[in-house]
Amino acid sequence: MATEIRLGADDRKELLERFLRYVAIDTASDEESESCPSTEKQKDLARLLVRELEEVGCERVRMDDCAYVYGFLPERLPAGHPAAGKVPAVGLIAHMDTYPNTPGGGVKPQIIEGYDGGPITLPGAPDVVLDPAANPNLERCRGKTVITTDGTTLLGADDKAGIAEIMTALSWLRRHPEVPHGPVSIAFTPDEEIGRGADHFDVEGFGARYAYTLDGSDLGEIEDETFCADTVTVTIEGYDVHPGYAKDKLVNAIRVASAIVDNLPERYLPETTEGREPYLHPYTISGDVSKVEMKVLARAFTVEELHRREDALRTVVAAVNERFPKAKITVDVQESYRNMAYKIAEDPRVLEYALEAVRRAGLEPQRHAIRGGTDGSRLSFMGILTPNIFAGGQNFHSIREWVCLEWMEKAVEVTLQLLQVWVERSAGE
Q: Residues with Cβ < 8 Å from 247, sequence gap 6 or more?
């Protein structure tokens, strides 16, 4: 029989206070940094979370040198319970860093209680308006509490909403000793926004084969697919001579790079694709006349589609090389991550139980594929099957970022229901 899970006003207040406490800490990561974590300031939040995990009763709490934070909640089942000793450890994961290309320090949240459904002006940028016409989910939050930025920074709901939800769920369990649960492993990771969130993850120490990131968006959303992703580096070596004497000698690497970008089929670009369509995305170019390095993101939901897009890029490069035969062009492909669906299909319980938890929270599950990746993409291939649960945030990475408190509350409820589902299903095995 399912255990009743109900959050009250005090829980909602705690959730809000935690969220505001976390977003006040600047944790932007830095793609150019080679250190781990990429920014020391991520450790400020990590140290706070170590203290708070201990306060809510977690054991084996630690922060490692790279600012990964771990904790563990032992199984709590009454003697003789049919699931005792049979429930596998279930992991809960969120990332601490925020997107580095939008200011993330000095966050001043605007809290709108009883949102009336109209346009929202951001006080730090009066010309920036959250228009419900461009943000249809705002209509779904009419009468609820909406939290926005002031228009000068991002908010940090990605993923401090997830952190606040996990911590509130753990706190709720501490206050409700009558509610049984299996072992729970917790991890808060650095540098997810720059693709390094799983680089130094302690899989063995984490101790769970099944886990969930709370890093999604819309209410009721469960994401069990991600892109397959590679990063392609195209290096162009030209030949630089004085431009006054360049005829039949100069090979301008900048022109060659421009020709490659210009000849990518428009139907292959992120700005022309949606849904399950793959893309190629040239996102950085650096260099000069003599040498240019260009990076291109290749994304697709299957490995086969991914390779076809990479082959299309090679075809473009070869055609441009015929036009500039004296240029030396190399193409290097580095694997980033693969679609978690390949691994989740091997043991679909991790998805099925999440869908059931959403239903128990009174929501209709929305099963989506992510046009992107999460820590769960790589963790699933590292031995921890890790779908993604909604955390409620909207307009990630933007000064227009916002979140609904009641959606966050539902994410807490789904998390607690999920732990109950694992207990019940384990009892029947």
A: none
Q: What is the pLDDT of residues 86-120, one digit of tens each?
A: 999 999 999 999 999 999 999 999 999 999 999 99
CA 84 to chain centre: 33
Residue 2, burial from CB neighbour count under 10 angstroms (0-12, 13-18, 19+): exposed
Residue with tokens 């207990």: 423
Active-site option among 97, 193, 223, 375: 97
Whole-angstrom Cα distance, residue 396 to residue 386? 21
- Residue 93 corresponds to which tokens in the numbers above? 């994961």
Give the model confidence (pLDDT) of 301-326 as tens digits: 999 999 999 999 999 999 999 999 99
CATH 3.40.630.10 domain range(s) in the chain: 9-226+339-427
CATH for the 228-337 domain, from 3.30.70.360, 3.10.20.600, 3.40.50.300, 3.40.50.720: 3.30.70.360
192 counts as catalytic = yes
**Active-site residue among 14, 192, 310, 356?**
192
Superfamily of domain 9-226+339-427: Zn peptidases (3.40.630.10)
